[in-house]
Amino acid sequence: MExxxxxxxxxxxxxxxxxxSNNGTMFHLxxxxxxxxxxxxxxxxxxxxxxxxxxxxxxxxxxxGTKFESPIGASYGSIVTKDVKFDKAMKxxxxxxxxxxxxxxxxxxxxxxxxxxENKPNQNLDFAMLWQGFNYxxxxxxxxxKLNKDEDIISRFSSTVRRNIRKSFKNPxxxxxxxxxxxxxxxxxxxxxxxHDVKPTHNYRDLLKLRELLPENLKLFMVYYKNIPIAGSxxxxxxxxxxxxxxxxxxxxxxxxxxxxxxxxxxVKYSTDNDYQYVDIGVSQDTKADNPMTPxxxxxxxxxxxxxxxxxxxxLSIKL
Length: 320
Fold this sequence. Notes:
The structure is a single chain. By secondary structure, the protein is of the alpha+beta class. It has two domains: 2-139 and 315-319, 3-Layer(aba) Sandwich (Aminopeptidase); 148-276, Gcn5-related N-acetyltransferase (GNAT) (Aminopeptidase, 3-Layer(aba) Sandwich), CATH 3.40.630. It has helices at 11-20, 30-33, 86-102, 124-131, 159-170, 182-194, 204-213, 259-273, 297-304; strands spanning 2-5, 46-50, 53-58, 61-63, 67-70, 107-111, 135-146, 174-179, 218-225, 228-237, 242-250, 278-283, 309-319. Strands 4-5-6-13-7-12-11-10-9-8 form a ten-stranded mixed β-sheet, sandwiched between helices.
């Protein structure tokens, strides 16, 4: 098995491999990385080859000259493969470790998507990494809803949420649209984030660029009240298995209408109708706590009202 550094002539083959893989997402696509402004990152993406055919890819970058991190400039990274057997997973990891040592790296840090993002859940890579010296260095708590076309969506939600959603159905002044009006969405998102002394991961230019590059992967759900935008959810349809609520926003003076609960129903319904297996509502950490793993209890409890269950976003690391 040979490892080479990614170069642009591999772009189409790389993206084709990710799309056909068992665990790849939009965050692993070279097309996704194109949204970054030139020069923001110096990437060191890796391609694993057997007989000149791709068997794995890893997006990432070498930080401070000796530490390889994946992802860089994305939400998820780590090793993308097809539905590999255990012996192939072992070879991929041993090859990565040999390559890292040959490059003079002294640390690897890989954060993969939660297992619910996989078309066929397969933790061969995780075990192969642990067996060959990796250890878990960080866990984030995320919340995902398992979708089921044979189950009524509203019946799965808490009684209060059910009541609020049904009330919104009866209000003729409330409507929900899938729209391209990012100009309606983004200013409210910025205000929401400012309440917690943070900024959105993406600026307005970033979101428009992502929409241009990956129009089928981004869908903006907006709630309007008397034609006023009052809430929304920007969904990333990350692969054929999972959709991700990347941003939710709310105009707080309209919170009494519970528009976030209505938009949650709409994104779950859309994802179910379009054959996705899970909706990931995102991580729930207390960003002001000293320990980055500190859970946000109120946020987790809110997500549980929609029948969301805990899935972990795990980081595996090794020092060489």
